[in-house]
Write a structure and sequence with these properties.
single chain, 8 strands, 36% helix, globular
Length: 319
């Protein structure tokens, strides 16, 4: 399918990124360049408040979104994308608001520590600890720890899926579902979607090498010894994991690895719904208020969360 015409102006505006020498890009400069954009519209919720959750030996900023005053809401712990190096609570605020409203679930967005200052496995351990904290403090948050999901986009999807693996292996809080939006799932830069989409569609092969190098280290990346809990397609045993909704994008270098992960989870016995969205690029679900397909995708994903967690939400139409 041709590129969604609503995305072309965005792609044009991001074209200068293609000329950047990512090998010399300082992380702080990338964070400034990829900072939060002004919100195109507002999603009002009964309660949005900043909280602090326990990470891996550190206190982490987080934000609680509640779509109603009802106690015992299902809860989604959300991890933002940004290649493990960029991204904030603010960059994903509108996305989290919309997920909360459309799913009827409370959302806890976690500001985990970023690479390269905190390389693998620190961001993952922060996210795992945050899920355990949410489960342990469910009553104070007004949520139901028996109806808990993890979610994330891109590197956040990677972290959500890896948290599910750690929780299975460590016997942590029960995770009922994982929502993974175009997740990072491997460090194979020669697969089909990298070959097709590695240039010209915002997220490039060079950018992903830069992100991976900061997360797992240049030596591990060069040697191919990327830890399986970072490159999830390399995990040998994917049995015993929660159901998953996985969304991939047609013009995304990460498309194929996300779909490989979906097939492997299904082969291992998980109930998986895989959706490849045609005509879109990496990160499109955050392009709310710009591309109609963004709202539709987030609403559809939120419905799956509601169904998986028994939220019984009344899905609202319109932005």
């Amino acid at each position: 399918m041709p590129l969604d015409p609503q995305l072309q102006p965005i792609l044009d505006s991001m074209a200068p990124m293609a000329a950047i020498d990512w090998g010399t890009m300082p992380p702080n400069a990338a964070r400034e360049m990829m900072g939060a954009m002004p919100l195109p519209y507002q999603v009002d919720l009964p309660e949005v408040r900043d909280i602090t959750v326990a990470g891996d030996g550190a206190q982490l900023a987080a934000r609680l979104y509640r779509p109603s005053a009802e106690e015992g809401l299902p809860v989604v712990v959300f991890f933002h994308g940004g290649g493990w190096v960029t991204g904030t609570l603010e960059s994903h605020d509108l996305l989290c608001r919309l997920i909360a409203r459309e799913s009827g679930c409370a959302v806890v967005s976690v500001d985990y520590r970023l690479a390269p200052e905190h390389a693998f496995p620190v961001p993952l351990e922060d996210c795992y600890a945050a899920v355990q904290w949410v489960a342990a403090n469910a009553a104070a948050l007004g949520v139901d720890a028996s109806r808990l999901a993890v979610a994330g986009d891109s590197a956040g999807g990677n972290l959500a899926a890896a948290v599910a693996l750690l929780t299975r292996d460590r016997g942590g809080a029960t995770i009922s579902h994982q929502l993974l939006l175009y997740p990072v799932a491997d460090a194979d830069f020669a697969n089909g979607s990298y070959t097709e989409n590695g240039q010209g569609y915002f997220l490039s092969k060079d950018m992903m090498r830069w992100f991976w190098g900061h997360y797992v280290g240049a030596d591990a990346l060069a040697s191919g010894n990327v830890p399986p809990l970072a490159a999830l397609c390399r995990v040998e045993n994917l049995a015993g994991l929660p159901s998953a909704s996985i969304v991939t994008a047609e013009y995304d270098p990460l498309r194929d690895e996300g779909e490989v992960l979906a097939r492997r989870l299904a082969d291992a016995g998980a109930a998986v719904e895989l959706t490849r969205v045609p005509g879109v690029i990496h990160g499109f679900a955050s392009m709310l208020g710009i591309a109609d397909i963004a709202e539709k995708t987030v609403r559809d994903a939120s419905r799956r969360l509601a169904e998986s967690l028994g939220a019984g939400a009344k899905i609202m139409a319109g932005a």
